[in-house]
């Protein structure tokens, strides 16, 4: 079964998730925005074998620690979608703009697109391209675990910002309705910030997209 631990990191309290296969103890880290010693300590404490970095998108609070972590641990960077190349190219500028430590550059070892899958141990997660917050945003969905790691697409009671370069409000609404609602009302999602919620709860009550069917 897929297991996970979510640790808020950086001054933006970004939800970095360590996900692992319980059978093999192999793990991936989703969106290592920073505080790498803390993340690695959590990996060691659980006896996990860190195998990969998965990115939902390339904003600094989600991707700021990626280059250093990949280099120091010899990890492949998987994701996001190629639409976020310009955000990766601008990581150093993002660091300065938001007061983050200087971010190392990186090149993803594998870009992701809608319909792809990622695997850790015996666990396979589906990839959904959900543009709007950024052009290359993706989410990771485990149907057996009924969990989705959605980055900054959807929050408990909110949705992602679309006022950054490349953002598109209508694209975001369409992605939520077409790519997230079909995951099922009982699916728990782990957002990029704040508490977990369920697809059903947000589909019914979220003031930005609640009440709209897929």
TrEMBL record:
Matches recorded under SUPFAM superfamilies: Metallo-hydrolase/oxidoreductase
rRNA-binding keyword on record: no
Cofactor: Zn(2+)
Domain Metallo-beta-lactamase: from-to ranges: 13-193
InterPro entries assigned: MBL_Glyoxalase_II (IPR051453), Metallo-B-lactamas (IPR001279), RibonucZ/Hydroxyglut_hydro (IPR036866)
GO function terms (MF aspect): hydrolase activity; metal ion binding
Lineage: superkingdom: Bacteria
Region of interest called Disordered, as start-end residue ranges on this chain: 192-214
Keywords linked to the UniProt accession: Hydrolase, Metal-binding, Zinc
The name this protein goes by in its record: MBL fold metallo-hydrolase
Source lineage: Bacteria, Pseudomonadati, Pseudomonadota, Betaproteobacteria, Burkholderiales
């Amino acid at each position: 079964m897929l297991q996970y631990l979510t640790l808020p990191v950086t001054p933006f309290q970004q939800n970095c998730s360590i996900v692992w296969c319980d059978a093999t103890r192999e793990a991936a880290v989703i969106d290592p925005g920073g505080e790498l010693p803390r993340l690695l300590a959590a990996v060691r404490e659980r006896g996990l074998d860190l195998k990969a970095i998965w990115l939902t998108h390339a904003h600094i609070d989600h991707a700021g620690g990626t280059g250093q972590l990949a280099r120091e641990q010899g990890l492949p960077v998987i994701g996001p979608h190629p639409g976020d190349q310009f955000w990766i190219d601008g990581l150093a500028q993002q660091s300065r703009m938001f007061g983050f430590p200087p971010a190392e550059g990186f090149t993803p070892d594998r870009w992701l697109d809608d319909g792809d899958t990622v695997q850790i141990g015996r666990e396979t997660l589906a990839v959904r391209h959900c543009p709007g917050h950024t052009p290359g945003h993706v989410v990771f969905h485990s149907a057996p675990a009924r969990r989705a790691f959605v980055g900054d697409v959807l929050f408990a009671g909110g949705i992602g910002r679309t006022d950054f370069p490349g953002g598109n409000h209508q694209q975001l609404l369409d992605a939520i309705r077409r790519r997230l609602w079909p995951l099922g009302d009982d699916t728990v999602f782990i957002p990029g910030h704040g508490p977990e919620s369920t697809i059903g709860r947000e589909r019914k009550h979220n003031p930005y997209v609640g009440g709209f069917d897929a």
